[in-house]
Structure formats: C-alpha cells, structure tokens
C-alpha cells in the first residue's frame, strides 16, 4: 500500500531540532532564529544522521521528523529560498537537485512513494533553502 503523500506542511513549526548547539542556554531552548541551517545544522554535521555530504550539499534525517520518513537536503552555501535564488546560485542548485534526486529515489524505492517539497514565503520558517523529502503519515 502506498502511504499518503499530500499532507499539508504549512510550516516547519515543531519540526526543527533543538540542538546540538554551542551553549547550555541554547541546548534547553528551541531554536528561535531565522536560519536554522547556517546557525545550527551546518555548524555541527557530526551531530546529525547524515545520508549525504559533499562540498556543496548536506542531506540528513530530520532530528524531529514531521513524517514517518523525513529527510532534509540543504545547500551548504547560504541561499535564502528557491524563489530568491539567482543565476549565481546555479552550481549549488544543480548539486542540490542531484542529491534531492538521490535521496528521493532511495525513499521511493524503499517505501514506494516520496514527496519532495520546499516551503516559500510565510510557509518557510528557516530562511535558508531546504528541501524536504518525506514519506508516510504525519507523526
Ligand atoms: Zn543560511
């Protein structure tokens, strides 16, 4: 049976990992900034369950998954969003899409379905381009 795919993912609220980060106060407080990836995730990739990492792209299992299967793929260089990216970001976008394809293919092969999405505007909590690859029910 193919799991449901189109589950509204209006925002990442409640999905973002709470750490690890650099100081005790931050460890006990949820991240409240606007760029989780530059501020937290990309600073300590060893703390993540990484499935792919190269000089341009990081992909890992979400530490607080919203769906049964939930990975996130991000460019290492800061790009605010898909719709603000420019021709200057082409190499990073190309590299990102290659990894998104690999991760989505793996999820599709393993579970029979995958969703690939990125939030924009008010739906995008963390203002660093990131692509969710997910499958299954909302947790
Ligand atoms: Zn960033």
From TrEMBL:
- Tell me which residues this entry annotates as catalytic: 130 (tele-amp-histidine intermediate)
Q: Where is this motif: Histidine triad motif?
A: 128-132
Q: Which Pfam family, just one, is annotated for this protein?
A: HIT
The record's GO molecular-function terms, alphabetically, read: catalytic activity
Q: Which InterPro entries match?
A: Histidine_triad_HIT, HIT-like, HIT-like_sf
Looking at the record, the residues that make up the HIT domain are 36-139
Q: What is this protein called?
A: HIT domain-containing protein
**Species, as recorded:** Auraticoccus cholistanensis
């Amino acid at each position: 049976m193919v799991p449901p795919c189109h589950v509204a993912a209006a925002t990442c609220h409640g999905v973002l990992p709470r750490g690890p980060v650099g100081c005790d106060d931050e460890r006990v407080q949820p991240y409240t900034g606007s760029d989780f990836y530059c501020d937290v995730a990309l600073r300590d990739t060893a703390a993540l369950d990484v499935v792919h990492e190269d000089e341009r792209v990081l992909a890992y299992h979400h530490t607080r998954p919203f769906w049964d299967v939930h990975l996130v793929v991000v460019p290492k260089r800061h790009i605010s969003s898909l719709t603000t990216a420019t021709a200057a970001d082409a190499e990073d976008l190309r590299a990102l899409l290659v990894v998104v394809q690999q991760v989505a293919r793996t999820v599709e092969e393993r579970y029979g379905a995958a969703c690939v999405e990125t939030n924009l505007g008010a739906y995008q909590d963390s203002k660093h381009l990131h692509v969710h690859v997910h499958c299954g029910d909302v947790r």
